[in-house]
Amino acid sequence: MEYDVFISYSRKDTTIVDQFVKRLTEAGYRVWIDRDGIYSGDQFATNIVEAIENSKILLFFSSASSNKSEWTVREIYYALSEHKTIIPIKIDTAKYDKRIALNLILVDFIQYQQNNFSSAAGRLVASVAKHLGKPEVTAESSSSTTTTTSTAPESGMSPEELYTLGEEHSENKEYGQALKYFRQAAKLGHAGAQYTLGLWYDSGQGVQKDLQQAIYWYRKAAEKGHDDSQNMLGFHYEIGLGVEEQDDYQLAVYWYQKAAEQGNEYAIRNLERLKKLKKI
Question: Torsions phi, psi of 204, nearest 5?
Answer without folding.
Answer: 85, 15
